[in-house]
Design a protein that fits this description.
The complex is a heteropentamer of chains A (150), B (662), C (324), D (259) and E (128). With 662 residues, chain B is of the alpha/beta class. Chain B has five domains: 4-127, 3-Layer(aba) Sandwich (Rossmann fold), CATH 3.40.50; 142-234 and 317-332 and 500-567, FAD/NAD(P)-binding domain, CATH 3.50.50.60; 248-305, no CATH class; 336-498, FAD/NAD(P)-binding domain; 579-645, Alpha-Beta Plaits, CATH 3.30.70.3270. Helices cover 28% and strands 25% of the residues of chain B. The chains are: A alpha/beta (150), B alpha/beta (662), C alpha/beta (324), D alpha/beta (259), E mainly alpha (128).
């Protein structure tokens, strides 16, 4: 596991959406291979990465998640043939938009993790947690309407 | 209000050693809807399941959460348990506290805290679960086998044996596949044709089996139990029913420039031909690229000599559509192209050949009638060098990263057969490793060395070049730490094998997963090795991964067993976790249909009563038997009318909220 | 403009009198010279209040969702920009094209009363436009303003042309503007993340959640909006501090991404003056740059950028450009 | 048409024949080779060690000059081509080398491998076209010529992308265009022994003889190369088995521009 | 520098991952300078992987490698033995006074036809 530099002991809360066929299985493989990653990553199982509505991502941030990562099958390997291609476009546009609003880009991530890539799953999560930890707590999305000073 | 039971599994020490299971069970006791919580050593055991069943009955549970291993492991188990206790199986949610928790975290406190959150997340979801019932769909009691090699033949025979009808779709003019091209088989050295052709004949004679040769799958619609497949029957310009296989046309055909594909293009064949003597169906086919009549309109000799009147130059491709309950993919393999391996001089030197070409040269029905003669000058080669792993285990980008698995054994076979038939021939084999797992395999290889004196050289060849009419093979001998130069007459390359390229199209049509090497992916590498992740699609032979004949036949029979198990059912339960549109919210905008990979969404005009008024509206309608439940439509839907059962937006939102609660 | 207006009125009369159409959708005089409002005229008599002038900025296409459900045919006057929304709605099966008679009308850019007032003028009684010059009459006298400075934001960068027409009333050719409609978006992109956040926090904090943007938006035409639907998980009606409220504009922008025609109505109607079009234009710009130029509403057929894909599409990490 | 040209040291001294015939022939074909300003020796060998930066800078300077002067850099000597092309690839794909090199050079605008490095033969093939050359031939070669590629043009093929590294065809096509008959022989892409001759004179001798023997056995009357070092080794160490020339000499000859 | 550090340094300089080697020997099967080498190309990869850098630093083969890239071109595992050899040679010549060739050695070897390129190459390859 990577060393994580914490900001005054800050531990981020990470929501990971994993598709049932590849990435969830990849996470299982990380488990059965005992490849550790931080406990603050919590996985929500979805049938396909294309089930992930941008509203879920926004909801997570609003409720205090510090980072949201979506994992799906590699392009071309989607169990539902095309699902991850849609995910790729949707998330590309969403992430760029959030960046435009001033939300740190390292809080969002899309990764392709196959069922065989337990090691990659673990590496990706370690890296993601490290990056989000470095950013500190997510405050922006939950107080976008609050005026400065209030 | 749900009445939820929570069951935390210890999984022996797998979970309990890292997660304080009692604390988890205790922590969620007062959560919304929870009326019962317990732990047990092995929840999946008979006793564990009994504990769940009893609790469901005693506490009138309406939903359960099992904190255990991955749902990919035991979700089905616990669903059955719930069902047995009278609870709808979709009222079960699994919190994965093993693979996603106890196995990856060392700190007990941290792991326990996480386990509590994971269990709470599942509780939050189950609070919103609704009983789902699987629909039923009928099963068409007919199977399709794509590919007529040994894998397809074996699967078809086994399925037909059980009394079901089977169609074999074969893209070539005859069934038989690669095995028909092989001379002898390892490790027994029996004649390949002698064991294969009787099976081919069985197929032809079995009234349950319909061989659609010279045909290709064009379109696949439907789903498990209910596939509708469009098959292209390519024009062979010979009436299959009339042709008697007399071969008179072959003798008279004036165009003899076509390359004989069956003999690996080592010799020529006429434009009208039967691929080989034992072809099934034993019917001629015209190669439109070579046929003078089809190209210029002149000739027509074959039609004149055909006593049966079978020749029909006007034949066009035809399409048939048939329904199937199950599909077996057995599309096989081909050796890779060797363009990227010019260091072995394959393209410049006629006497550098592939193993499959040698197979034809060694075969009595081959271009040299089974006499080992080299292609360039028809002389007996006195020194033969084999090079193994040509393009296999290659991660440089030129070849394939995997081991082709069969080359070590067939090279040993070739070396042995040559030494047996021509004892004055010197045989060298360059190898990186000799891999011979399998019954009697290593013994076979050792026989080549010990009994037949084949010279095995540990090392790889760096260059093959022609000098003064000899093939100079320059390579390493790693055992002696030398660079050796072997003056050879014939060089045989064990070219890597790759899935037959048409498999990509088939995979797309079937929506079956394919890996980066174009091998079809099995549903589970260990426990479901013959099933594709797409329900109703099964995999046999090399299309799924490199394998030899015995393994292929085993897999084909396993496929057949799976197919039979499916076809004996009259109805299938369908996945109830499908999309459905809320009629009052649907705009009818068609965006959902545009992302559905299955064409499951259609639109209907429907009269709706909203706010006391009747309105005619255009509304999305999902066919639950066709929908596979990916959810692409749910995100595309701007109004949120489209939702996915079992993974509803509200359920996922509640999971998000629970995780974020900290 | 008067000339155009009288021709429009003439056609409306003929269409109604002949019974060719059951109603005409256009603009009706308001209480002041600068607040004409969309209206449906069902008789020649009602046409007495018909108006078409420099304040008729409203996009009429969204009204056609309801109108095309009614008995008989509906005639509508559409400015160039309105026709894109019209097409998009036809594509989404919200408007029954066969029941609409589209009269394409010229538009030489519309004026923003807010900008005129911001110039210190009040009690405006009329305007006269002469090329680049606008004479503004007020109760207190007359002033001359530069047209560029007082046109609606959506008109300042508009080069749209009629995409649909059954007939047209176009008397003057509109000059092509050499402007970059993404200039404001680019300026924001050039800022640091913190500056952008500050900008948007200030802007979005002004929102009073009046729903005007949603109600006017032709792409936002759901029968039931997710914000009104408790099942969606984001519902909220009132102005509150919950997520549902705060992310209203983000979700709205995402929902119309790939479908927004850049008609600019959202910014036009916002009583708080939030530059909402800059949200939508960011999506348009990203889509153009990442997946190729796409103008929603140019065609009434085909997929939108977010309902199609290419195998070679960029990964999200490669779409995010190096900012500051 | 003008193209920036990097001649390299050897072509300015011992191998003037290569340089001059190339310029003459190019002019006849409508290409003006414009020597870049203040070029420095490329170093003759590509330094493979990833921490070698200083030795790559002269190549980067030349590349950067070409970037601002037409975007293409023409090379003739195989060694220069190899060094410059591989360095260019480093600048394009190796972030670390790129940023370190740019730190040294302090250019107005960072150089990131934008220039296209074009060998004279590639120029003949893609810019002029072998068909056009064939039309301009006044004195067809009418003899059997063996192309000697050596290593520098072809390898590593992933970066050089010059031709099929084991079965190249470009010089054969070139010979055909000049009215000669190309002779394919297996040692045309084997190393001549290179600079090792200074340490171990036997190796270039062994290699050169082997190469020329191979060419002769397959019927070549003459061997051509693009590399001054190869030419030297083959001619001086190859025991005179076959005459060896620069490919540009044959080009000039066939075009009738030989001085 | 410790042996381990030296190994890591050579690995880093070479930019090649020696663990990818599957020990097929194709590099040595192809090498034109094989017979001139005391340590063969495949052994460079193998010894480096084992951490036996001292043997490599003493090898004479580093002066015989032609950098002709034949081994690199044909490696089925995308390992670059030539880059390992060069990294070892660089390590040797960067050490004080360990140049492979002294200025005074050169003149006697030079004949009048010798191209600059040869001298330059040899200078670069053998000297700091």
């Amino acid at each position: 596991m990577q060393e994580i530099t914490t900001k005054e002991g800050f531990v981020p809360n990470i929501v990971a959406f994993c598709c049932n066929w590849c990435s969830y299985a990849g996470a299982d493989l990380a488990g059965s291979s005992r490849l550790s990653y931080p406990a603050n990553v919590k996985i929500i199982r979805v049938p396909c990465s294309c089930r992930v509505n941008p509203m879920f991502v926004l909801k997570a941030f609003q409720r205090g998640a510090d980072g949201v990562i979506i994992c799906g099958c590699h392009p071309g390997d989607c169990h539902y043939v095309t699902g991850n291609y849609y995910t790729r476009r949707r998330m590309a546009m969403l992430f760029s938009f959030l960046d435009y609003l001033g939300i740190e880009r390292d809080r969002t991530r899309l990764e392709w993790v196959s069922a065989a890539e337990g090691a990659k799953f673990s590496a990706v999560m370690n890296d993601f947690v490290a990056k989000v930890t470095a950013l500190g707590e997510n405050k922006k999305l939950s107080d976008l309407r609050v005026k400065e000073g209030e | 209000m749900q009445r939820i039971g929570v069951f935390i599994c210890w999984c022996g020490s797998n979970i309990a050693a890292t997660v304080d299971v009692e604390r988890v069970a205790d922590a969620v006791k007062k959560d919304q809807g929870v009326v019962y919580s317990a732990t047990y050593q092995y929840m999946c055991s008979e006793n564990g399941q009994q504990l769940i069943k009893n609790a469901i009955k005693e506490h009138s549970l309406t939903g359960i959460v099992v904190g255990s291993c991955s749902p990919r492991m035991h979700e089905a188990t616990f669903r059955k348990t719930a069902e047995a206790a009278g609870l709808n199986s979709y009222m079960v949610e699994i919190a994965n506290i093993r693979e996603h928790c106890s196995w990856i975290h060392k700190d007990r406190e941290e792991a326990t805290e996480k386990a509590i959150i994971l269990v709470r997340t599942a509780i939050a979801k189950v609070n919103l679960n609704a009983p789902l019932s699987a629909g039923e769909s009928p099963v068409i009691k007919r199977a399709l086998v794509i590919g007529g090699g040994i894998a397809g033949i074996q699967a078809a025979l086994d399925i037909a044996e059980a009394g079901f009808e089977v169609d074999i779709v074969e893209k070539n003019a005859t069934i038989g596949g690669r095995m028909a091209q092989i001379d002898k088989t390892f490790p027994t050295l029996d004649c390949s044709a002698c064991i294969l052709t009787p099976k081919m004949v069985d197929c032809a004679q079995n009234e349950k089996i319909d061989i659609l040769s010279y045909s290709e799958v064009e379109e696949v619609k439907g789903f498990v139990g209910n596939f509708s497949v469009k098959i292209k029957r390519k024009a062979r310009f010979v009436d299959e029913k009339k042709c008697t296989g007399c071969k008179l046309c072959m003798e008279k055909c004036p165009s003899k420039k076509g390359l004989d594909e069956f003999n690996m293009k080592l010799n020529k064949r006429p434009a009208i031909y039967i691929p080989f003597a034992q072809a099934i169906p034993n019917v001629a086919v015209i190669d439109p690229e070579q046929c003078i009549k089809l190209k210029t309109g002149k000739c027509g000799l074959c039609q004149k000599v055909c006593g049966a009147g079978a020749i029909d130059y006007t034949q066009k491709d035809e399409y048939i559509e048939r329904g199937y309950g199950a599909i077996v993919v057995a599309t096989g393999f081909k050796p890779i192209e060797l363009n990227a391996f010019n260091e072995f001089g394959y393209s410049e030197n006629q006497d550098v050949i592939t193993s499959l070409e040698l197979e034809r040269i060694m075969n009595a029905a081959g271009p040299t009638n089974g006499v080992l003669l080299r292609p360039s000058d028809g002389e007996h080669p006195k020194v033969i060098t084999f090079i193994q792993c040509v393009g296999s285990r290659d991660t440089s980008g030129c070849g394939k990263p995997y081991c082709s698995k069969i080359c070590c054994m067939y090279t040993a076979k070739h070396a042995m057969l040559i030494r047996e038939k021509y004892p004055d021939t010197e045989v060298h084999v360059f190898y990186i490793d000799v891999r011979t797992p399998g019954k009697n395999y290593d013994e076979f290889f050792r026989r080549a060395v010990e009994q037949y004196g084949v010279d095995y050289i540990k090392g790889m060849v760096g260059k093959v070049y022609n000098e003064n009419g000899k093939l100079m093979v320059q390579g390493s001998n790693l055992i002696d730490n030398e660079q050796v130069l072997i003056e050879s007459d014939l060089v045989v390359l064990a070219a890597a094998i790759e899935p037959e390229p048409s498999v990509r199209k088939i995979a797309t049509l079937l929506t079956a997963s394919i890996d980066t090497n174009n091998f079809l992916t099995e549903s589970h590498a260990k426990l479901r090795p013959v099933e594709s992740p797409t329900a109703g699609v099964y995999l046999a032979g090399v299309c799924q991964g490199p394998k030899d004949i015995p393994e292929t036949v085993s897999q084909a029979s396993a496929c057949a067993a799976k197919v039979i198990g499916l076809l004996v059912k009259d109805k299938l339960k369908t996945n109830p976790c499908v999309a459905s549109a809320n009629e009052t919210m649907c705009n009818g905008c068609s965006q959902c249909a545009s992302v559905c990979p299955y064409g499951a969404i259609t639109y209907v005009e429907k009269e709706l009563r909203v706010d006391g008024k009747t309105e005619l509206r255009r509304i999305a309608s999902v066919n639950p038997a066709v929908c596979q439940g990916c959810g692409a439509c749910t995100v595309t839907c701007p109004s949120g009318a489209m939702d996915l059962k079992g993974f509803s937006s509200k359920q996922i939102m509640s999971e998000v909220e629970e995780i974020c609660k900290r | 403009m008067k000339e155009v207006e009288s021709k429009m009125l003439e056609r409306a009369k003929v269409l109604l009198e002949s019974g060719e159409v059951a109603r005409v959708i256009g603009w009706r005089k308001g209480a002041f010279c600068h607040d004409p409002e969309p209206a449906s005229f069902e008789s020649v008599d009602e046409l007495k209040d018909f108006v078409y002038d420099y304040f008729c900025g409203a996009n009429l296409s969204k009204y056609l969702i309801a109108e095309s459900k009614k008995e008989g045919k509906t005639a509508v006057f559409l400015k160039p920009c309105d026709t894109y929304s019209f097409n998009q709605l036809v594509k989404e099966h919200r408007i029954n094209r066969e029941k609409i008679h589209v009269i394409a009308v010229e538009c030489m850019a519309k004026l923003d009363i807010g900008k005129i007032k911001a110039k210190g003028l009040s009690a405006v009684t009329g305007v006269e436009v002469d090329g680049e010059q606008v004479k503004v009459q007020t109760l207190y006298g007359e002033a001359v303003l530069s047209k560029t400075e007082i046109v609606l934001a959506k008109c300042a960068t508009c080069n749209k042309t009629h995409q649909v027409k059954d007939e047209e009333i176009v008397l003057h050719e509109r000059p092509v503007r050499d402007v970059n409609r993404f200039a404001e978006v680019e300026a924001l992109e050039q800022m640091t993340a913190e500056e952008r956040f500050k900008f948007w926090r200030e802007q979005l904090s002004k929102c009073i959640r009046c729903n005007a943007c949603r109600n006017v938006c032709p792409a936002c035409s759901c029968i039931k909006c997710v914000f009104d639907n408790p099942q969606s998980g984001v519902a909220a009606k009132a102005n509150d501090d919950k997520f549902e409220e705060q992310l209203f504009h983000i979700i709205r922008a995402y929902h119309v991404a790939g479908r927004c025609t850049d008609c600019g109505e959202c910014s036009r109607v916002c009583p708080q003056g939030i530059p909402l079009h800059l949200l939508n234009r960011k999506f348009i710009k990203d889509i153009d740059e990442t997946y190729g130029e796409f103008q929603a509403g140019e065609s009434a057929e085909g997929k939108t950028p977010l309902t199609e894909y290419r195998e070679s599409d960029l990964e999200p990490k490669d779409v995010l450009k190096e900012g500051k | 048409m003008k193209i920036c040209y990097y001649p390299g040291c050897t072509l300015k001294t011992k191998s003037q024949a290569l340089d001059q015939t190339a310029r003459l022939a190019a002019l006849a074909l409508g290409v003006e080779m414009e020597e870049i300003e203040n070029w420095q020796c490329c170093g003759a060998v590509y330094p493979m060690a990833r921490d070698e930066i200083a030795t790559k800078l002269s190549a980067v300077r030349a590349l950067d000059y070409a970037k601002h002067n037409g975007g293409r850099l023409l090379t003739l000597c195989s060694a220069c081509h190899n060094v410059i092309k591989r360095t260019n690839e480093d600048m394009r794909s190796d972030g670390e080398i790129c940023s370190r090199a740019n730190n040294y050079l302090q250019l107005e605008e960072s150089y990131r491998g934008e220039t296209e490095v074009l060998h004279y033969l590639e120029m003949l093939k893609t810019v002029v076209g072998f068909d056009n050359i064939a039309q301009k031939v006044v004195k067809p070669l009418n003899r059997k010529v063996g192309a000697y590629y050596g290593c520098l043009l072809l390898r590593p093929s992933g970066v050089m992308a010059f031709d099929n590294p084991e079965n190249p065809t470009i010089i054969e096509d070139f010979i055909r265009a000049l009215g000669g008959t190309p002779v394919i022989y297996p040692f045309r892409n084997e190393c001549c022994g290179a600079y090792v001759g200074l340490k171990n004179p036997d190796l270039p001798k062994k290699q050169s003889e082997r190469i020329l023997r191979s060419a002769k056995e397959k019927g070549a009357e003459e061997v051509i190369t693009a590399c001054p070092l190869c030419l030297y080794n083959l001619n001086e160490k190859g025991s005179g088995i076959l005459p060896v020339k620069y490919f540009t000499e044959l080009l000039a000859e066939a075009l009738g521009v030989k001085s | 520098m410790t042996v381990k550090e030296q190994c890591e340094n050579v690995k880093r300089m070479s930019g090649t991952d020696v663990r990818k080697c599957m020990k097929c020997g194709k590099c040595s099967g192809r090498c034109p300078a094989f017979h001139e080498m005391d340590i063969k190309p495949h052994q460079f990869v193998s010894l480096l992987a084992q951490g036996r850098i001292e043997e490599l630093l003493k090898s004479e083969a580093i002066w015989s490698c032609l950098s002709c890239m034949a081994c690199v071109e044909r490696c089925p595992r995308a390992v670059a033995p030539a880059a390992v050899i060069e990294a070892v040679r660089d390590t040797v010549i960067r050490a004080q006074g360990a140049n492979g060739m002294k200025a005074e050695d050169i003149p006697p070897m030079v004949d009048e036809l010798i191209p600059q390129q040869l001298l330059m190459s040899a200078y670069r390859k053998y000297n700091k």
